[in-house]
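hi support,

uploading two proteins for the ticket. first:
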Amino acid sequence: MYTLLPKENIQLNATAYRFQGREYGNIPLSFFWVLTPPGKGPDMHVHPYKEIFVLLHGQATFTIGNETLIIHAGNVVIVPANTPHQFKNSGEEPLQMLSMHPSEAVVQEFLDR
């Protein structure tokens, strides 16, 4: 038996979709599929597991710990567990990216809140 999910079924807000594996038979994977406008992105946060980013289109500036990196489409970034990080769309067009969470639910703590 398979499951087919139109992206509208997992829409979180105007620019993000969130799949949580626990809602589909306790799959040990969750992800965000983002379409982030220029200048936008999440605030600094941490996860108790590694997070894997797949940049599909555009450019992002990542802050990972004390490092700042400019990453372009076609690259994968792996952020270690419990490492403060954030990204902002530093390009001129929407950033399309997947962020994979090896957990049946997204677990994150924002540090500036």
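and the second one:
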Amino acid sequence: MGGVSIGAVVLLVLVIGQRLVELRIAKRNTVALLARGGRELGADHYWLIVALHTAWIGTLVLSGWQQPLLWGWVGVYLVLQAGRFWILRSLGGRWTTRIIIVDEPAIQRGPYRFVRHPNYWLVAAELIAVPMALGLYWVAIVFTLLNAAMMVKRIRAENTALASLPEA
């Protein structure tokens, strides 16, 4: 390993930038949903999600900035971003990083027609693709396992929330 890998730095900046934009969108949508009478469920474990993603990004930055890129995995990450856009577009103002329910039927368009919790599947794939793009196999394994354990609780809470919504 030599010096800085420009490709790795660009990928890391892209990932961090994407996450920051998502947090801004999520905050705006959360405020709007709560103003419409929404209520949050699963707040007790939200800090785990924040901690996991912060640790993942921190680990990527500390371990990945000198790594040469594996372009096939970069391609996987970019394809996943098309999926993220589809998810965000499908949920519109109801997309947030928290579980906020409003008295409206669940969204049934976009990827939600085909699979439950597509955003969680996409995030799980990202937690693999980005470290793999940097050759950090151990990061992909460790954070995938941590995320899977956390998602058990998260999906249980979200399913409870979805069951409380009116039918379409």
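thanks. also noticed: The first helix runs from residue 6 to 35.
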